[in-house]
């Protein structure tokens, strides 16, 4: 997971091969990166979000398997614990609603969804264990408008992708869409106030899929299915109104090559570019994936 604090300061959060939490920072717009050596946590990070130009929040779980939140107030230079859960739960997605409101979603050991919410910029957090009243594995959160949020993930058994939606800044949630069988949704990106694109893959064939919503997450339609194995489980990047990229990997193994799909104008013109296998560990839960700076 990555976050842009300013035009020059960027953060990337994830974990290494030993599941030690790792945060990297760039102060030159992504051209070079250094690890934040002041943070030493034996637990993975699954997400990081910008709260303000200087404040950021990173989420995951601690060594005991409890929800964990870290916060920085100096543009990612140093980090301190802001929340340590008391029940088994892994926070897998986080999004900033405003400079005061931050929302995160977790699943416990039984894959029951938990809601975490802060109203003071991530300094303290409240927990709602029944906000969703559903079992699922959360994958990604996106802010659509000032009060509308969308969460994507997959069922506890991994057999269907699921979309949840909130219209009150993350206080209450409603399930709005479920994919056909044997799919997982792994990412979602806002294109406009009404258009969203969600990415995922078939869990049986590992063919990548892209879904589109044109009503801010209420309804969804399948816009693309890859013709070769392409687990789309990275991110979607909008380079312009006409050009978008979807990032993932080619097959479900640690030795998989990275893959980028490029969309120009509509789903019929997607083309694939395969990346060489890198040797670094995971950022944001994508095994052995290098993050590259793509310019339009």
Q: How would you describe this protein?
A:
The structure is a single chain. The protein has 296 residues and is mostly beta strands. Helices cover 0% and strands 51% of the residues. The chain has no helices and 23 strands. The strands form 5 sheets. A 7-stranded antiparallel β-sheet has the order 5-6-7-8-9-10-11, with no helix packed on it. A 4-stranded antiparallel β-sheet has the order 1-2-3-4, with no helix packed on it. The C terminus is likely disordered.
Question: How is the secondary structure organized here?
Answer:
Blueprint: E1 2-4, E2 10-15, E3 21-26, E4 34-35, E5 45-50, E6 56-61, E7 66-72, E8 80-96, E9 102-108, E10 113-118, E11 126-128, E12 137-143, E13 149-154, E14 161-166, E15 174-178, E16 183-190, E17 196-202, E18 207-213, E19 221-229, E20 236-238, E21 243-249, E22 258-264, E23 266-275
Which descriptors apply to this entry?
mainly beta, seven-stranded antiparallel sheet, 296 residues, single chain
Number-wise, the strands total: 23
Distance between the termini: 21 Å
Strand content: over 45%
Shape descriptor reads globular
Structural class: mainly beta
Radius of gyration: 18 Å
User: What is the string of helix and strand elements?
Assistant: EEEEEEEEEEEEEEEEEEEEEEE
Q: Which spans have pLDDT < 50 for at least 5 consecutive residues?
A: 274-296
Biggest sheet architecture: 7 strands, antiparallel
How much helix, percentage-wise, in residues? Answer: under 10%
Number of helices: 0
**Average residue pLDDT:** 81
Strands of the widest sheet, in order across it, are 5-6-7-8-9-10-11
């Amino acid at each position: 997971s990555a976050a842009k604090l300013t035009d020059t300061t960027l953060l990337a959060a994830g974990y290494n091969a030993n599941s030690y939490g790792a945060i990297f920072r760039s102060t030159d717009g992504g051209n070079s990166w250094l690890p934040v050596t002041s943070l030493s946590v034996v637990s993975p990070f699954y997400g990081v979000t910008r709260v303000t130009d200087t404040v950021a929040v990173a989420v995951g779980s601690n060594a005991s398997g409890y929800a964990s939140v870290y916060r920085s107030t100096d543009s990612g230079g140093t980090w301190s614990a802001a929340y340590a859960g008391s029940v088994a739960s892994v926070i897998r997605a986080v999004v900033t609603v405003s400079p005061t409101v931050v929302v995160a979603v977790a699943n416990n050991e039984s894959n029951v969804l938990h809601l975490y919410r802060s109203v003071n910029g991530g300094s303290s957090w409240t927990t709602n264990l029944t906000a969703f009243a559903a079992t699922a594995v959360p994958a990604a959160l996106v802010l659509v408008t000032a009060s509308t949020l969308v969460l994507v993930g997959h069922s506890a058994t991994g057999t269907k992708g699921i979309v949840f939606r909130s219209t009150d800044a993350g206080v209450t949630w409603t399930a709005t869409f479920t994919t056909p069988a044997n799919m997982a949704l792994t990412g979602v990106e806002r294109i406009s106030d009404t258009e969203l694109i969600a990415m995922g893959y078939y869990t049986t064939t590992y063919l990548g899929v892209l879904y589109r919503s044109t009503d801010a997450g209420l309804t969804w339609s399948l816009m693309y299915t890859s013709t070769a194995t392409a687990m789309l489980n990275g991110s979607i990047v909008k380079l312009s109104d006409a050009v978008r990229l979807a990032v993932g990997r080619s097959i479900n193994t640690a030795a998989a090559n990275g893959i980028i799909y490029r969309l120009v104008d509509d789903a019929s013109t997607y083309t694939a570019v395969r990346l060489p296998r890198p040797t670094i560990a995971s950022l944001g839960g994508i095994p052995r994936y290098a993050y590259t700076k793509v310019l339009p």
